[in-house]
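Lab channel / #folding
Pinned by the channel admin:
"Please post every new chain as: sequence first, then the structure tokens as a reply. Keep commentary short and put observations after the output so the thread stays searchable."

First post following the new format, from NK:
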Amino acid sequence: MILRNYEFKAKTANPDKLEKKLLKLNPVYRGEDHQIDTYFNVPSGRLKLREGKIENALIYYERPDIPDKKQADIILYRHSPEISLKDILTKIHGIKTVVEKTRRIYFIDNVKFHFDNVKNLGTFVEVEAIDETGQIPTEDLKEQCNRYFSFFELKSADYVSNSYSDMIP
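Reply from TO:
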């Protein structure tokens, strides 16, 4: 599946406050997932294998490392957990890093909300305006991100420019 997202990630000291605010909008709760993201060495972009109870996927993405809202171009392959996939990827590419997190997942229409507690990094909120069909104009996706950034009363200094994989000590 090829996706186009417009998204942002922000550091937050109080994800519970932001989550309570989101709950007032009656989002669809998908659950809490303990996820292990294994990032592999690739010449460009990022390749990760996500292993969780809710989400399991091989994900390749390209996204600029800027402290703002940004477009991400994604190729997503959903799969059933199978250790041999990780073994093959490790053998071919080698492991760059591993990110472990607990993620609470919500949706409002095409917008996905994550409240993340990332091991050794802290707490974050991510908002992804997702276009799975190629039918949503980029400006609409940007507007969705802008709306939720303002809704959460976040500041520019809260933006995180990098992937968790780049932040792991």
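NK: The chain has four helices and eight strands.
TO: also worth noting, The CA atoms of residues 50 and 70 lie 22 Å apart.
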